[in-house]
């Protein structure tokens, strides 16, 4: 259900004043976008969901479902709106509130892997069908860019107009604003992944050779910077264009001063691939998403991790259950689900009084039609079964990401904890 099945689509509660990791996805975090106001972020994952987060509190506001496959790309469109691109070749445009997209576009014939925002609310997409496309703020196609011989892995707007795309065919293509003019084709020595463009027009592209390649706005190759021995798969540019963050397969993120090509800081993660990166609008913070299913937050100047993984004891709603295995299993759920009568609904409904409650019946929560049509009553047996076989098998028609608790002991501990913590009082 988009209630209890959302149990594991959450983040740890953040304490004031420090931010925490954003925990909630059930698979690697493939995309991160931050609204220009710096108040809201949207993330996409291999678990087929997007999550909208309130950054000041770290609370997940909504779990968003529109894609039949992984959510590979996200972009902020301004005024709280976002767009996501998926493995299904579709783009979903999301309003500032609610869980229903304004529009879903059949945009490409293969997975979309990059989205970027342009002037006046326009945006562009890149996909593995060998094309990129330019879209109006409402999602109407304005231009289709064809020419790459293989996957298009990156797209960015040029300051003077036009677009640049990067491809697995090792070419960078600079597309003039005038569709009648052919692109400038720059061939580099390696397949290319993400691409960004600085305010002065310099292009930075991530290579499968573990290097950043620098190209002028006219297509002149300016130089390169080796970051590591493995492919670079995530790239972000600071708002002022002075620094580039690049992440790779091994999990570290290098922050490079663009003017000198020097590595000024390294963000040391858990050793798993970093799939997505984003700077905060003020340039002070970097968000990284990767194979550990969370979004980590870093000081962009020092490279130091921001916040603790586990909330401070005085700020932890589970402090009273310290040492209980069931509470630890539930910990990742605390930001999307409350347990008390005054907690209310968040991205998922409150779990207060869950035992004996019919599915999709918590007051004030907007359940999906598929869940409202079911007749399950939540009990120790039904909760355990949900996480034993997963939402897709237990709740036919649900759009929830697949989540399972494979240990029977952990499932029982979770049930015992929920029975105690959600009991009416």
UniProtKB/TrEMBL annotation:
Entry GO MF terms: electron transfer activity; heme binding; metal ion binding
SMART domains hit by this protein: WD40
Signal peptide interval: none
Domain Cytochrome c span(s) in chain numbering: 321-422
Keyword NADP: no
Coiled coil (UniProt feature): none
Cited Pfam families: Cytochrom_C, WD40
Keyword Electron transport: yes
Descriptive protein name: Cytochrome c domain-containing protein
InterPro entries from the UniProt entry: Cyt_c-like_dom (IPR009056), Cyt_c-like_dom_sf (IPR036909), Cyt_c_1A/1B (IPR002327), WD40/YVTN_repeat-like_dom_sf (IPR015943), WD40_repeat_dom_sf (IPR036322), WD40_rpt (IPR001680)
Transmembrane regions listed in the UniProt entry: none
WD repeats: 22-63, 145-175, 267-308
Keywords: Electron transport, Heme, Iron, Metal-binding, Transport, WD repeat
């Amino acid at each position: 259900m988009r209630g209890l099945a959302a149990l594991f689509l959450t983040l740890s509660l953040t304490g004031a004043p420090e931010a925490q990791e954003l925990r909630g996805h059930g698979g690697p975090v493939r995309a991160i976008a931050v609204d220009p106001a710096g108040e809201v972020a949207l993330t996409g994952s291999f678990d087929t969901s997007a999550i909208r987060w309130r950054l000041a509190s770290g609370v997940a506001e909504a779990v968003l479902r529109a894609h039949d496959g992984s959510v590979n790309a996200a972009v902020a469109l301004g005024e709280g709106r976002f767009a996501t691109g998926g493995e299904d070749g579709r783009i979903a445009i999301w309003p500032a509130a609610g869980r229903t997209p304004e529009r879903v576009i059949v945009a490409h014939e293969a997975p979309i892997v990059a989205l970027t925002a342009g002037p006046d609310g326009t945006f562009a997409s890149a996909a593995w069908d060998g094309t990129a496309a330019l879209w109006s703020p409402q999602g109407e196609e304005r231009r289709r860019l064809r020419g790459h011989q293989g996957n298009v892995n990156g797209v960015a707007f040029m300051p003077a107009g036009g677009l640049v795309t990067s491809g697995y065919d090792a070419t960078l293509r600079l597309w003039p604003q005038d569709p009648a003019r052919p692109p400038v084709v720059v061939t580099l020595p390696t397949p290319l992944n993400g691409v960004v463009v600085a305010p002065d027009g310099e292009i930075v592209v991530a290579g499968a050779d573990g290097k950043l390649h620098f190209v002028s706005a006219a297509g002149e190759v300016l130089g390169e910077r080796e970051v590591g021995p493995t492919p670079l798969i995530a790239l972000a540019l600071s708002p002022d264009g002075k620094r580039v963050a690049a992440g790779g397969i091994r999990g570290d993120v290098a922050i490079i001063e663009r003017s000198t090509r020097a590595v000024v800081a390294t963000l040391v993660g858990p050793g798993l691939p970093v799939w997505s990166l984003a700077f905060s609008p003020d340039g002070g913070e970097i968000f990284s998403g990767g194979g550990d299913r969370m979004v980590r937050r870093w000081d962009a100047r020092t490279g130091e991790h921001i916040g603790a993984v586990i909330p401070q004891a005085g700020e932890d709603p589970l402090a009273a259950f310290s040492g209980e295995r069931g509470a630890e299993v539930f910990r990742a759920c605390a930001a999307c689900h409350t347990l008390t009568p005054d907690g209310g609904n968040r991205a998922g409904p409150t779990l207060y009084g869950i035992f004996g409650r019919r599915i999709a019946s918590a007051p004030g929560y907007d359940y999906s039609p598929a869940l409202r049509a079911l007749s399950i009553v939540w009990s120790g047996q039904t909760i355990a079964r949900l996480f034993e076989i997963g939402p897709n098998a237990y709740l036919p028609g649900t759009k929830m990401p697949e989540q399972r608790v494979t240990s029977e002991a952990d499932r029982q501990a979770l049930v015992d904890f929920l029975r105690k913590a959600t009991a009416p009082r």
